[in-house]
Amino acid sequence: RFNPRARHTIRAADLVLATNSETAARSRALGARQVELCLDTAVLSEAIALEERETPGRSAPTVLWVGRNLPLKGVALALHAFAQVHRSVPSAQLVMLGGGLDDAATTAQIEALGLFGAVHRLGQVPLPVVIDRYDTSSVMLFSSLRESFGAQVLEAMSRGLPVVALDIHGVGDFMPAIAGVKVPLQQGEGLADALGEGVVQLLTEPALWQEASRAARAAAGQHTWDRRGQDLA
């Protein structure tokens, strides 16, 4: 709102495409004449899993987290949420993919939460390895506090992996609630507990997990690059 060029551009545009409701509302407040929601990411059609996934085993469930270690990604929130999961499902493991996660602050949090040995930080890995983790994990935990949408959410959904995330930004607009668990934003420690409870629910209720897996794959099918091109043509 402080940039005159941004204000002029929005006011002069015939159409503004916004990737979430927050951006749409800000665009309207800055004088946009017509605003429509349009997710700014997609997946290749061939990336969507063709076969229905089987419910993962409950002996050693894996919770997957994907992202860089930035404040807006909510690493600390993810660790506190997983602590709740670990209390309910002691055999659960958290696999974290992304750069910068081996820092001293994250290590200290893992130790303080009693999660040493249950959290595995594998660093930044090639995309094929990420896809393999989507295919072999039980639940995706997405803890970002500020995002446009989060490409990893769509990637996980395309592989039939249920997602637990905050019900804000693009996730709130484009991820169906039935594709996992969307947790309303709240203040205090209850937010991490609610995220953890969402993960536990999917880990311990096979029928719910299967339903979420089907819904996730179906939703991802609505956001392929082919369909995006058709929509914008």
Structure description:
The chain is 44% helix and 14% strand. By secondary structure, it is α/β, with parallel strands linked by helices.
Question: What labels would you give this structure?
Answer:
233 residues; alpha/beta; 44% helix; globular
What is the element layout, followed by pairings?
Blueprint: H1 4-12, E1 16-18, H2 21-29, E2 35-37, E3 62-66, H3 75-88, E4 93-97, H4 104-112, E5 119-123, H5 127-136, E6 139-142, H6 151-158, E7 163-166, H7 169-174, E8 180-183, H8 190-204, H9 206-220, H10 225-232
Parallel strand pairs: 1-2, 3-4, 3-6, 4-5, 6-7, 7-8
Helix pairs in contact: 3-8, 6-9, 8-9
Count the beta strands: 8
What would you call the shape?
globular
What characterizes the major β-sheet?
A: 6 strands, parallel
Count of alpha and pi helical runs: 10
How would you sum up this structure in a few lines?
Helix content is 44%, strand content 14%. The protein is α/β, with parallel strands linked by helices and 233 residues long.
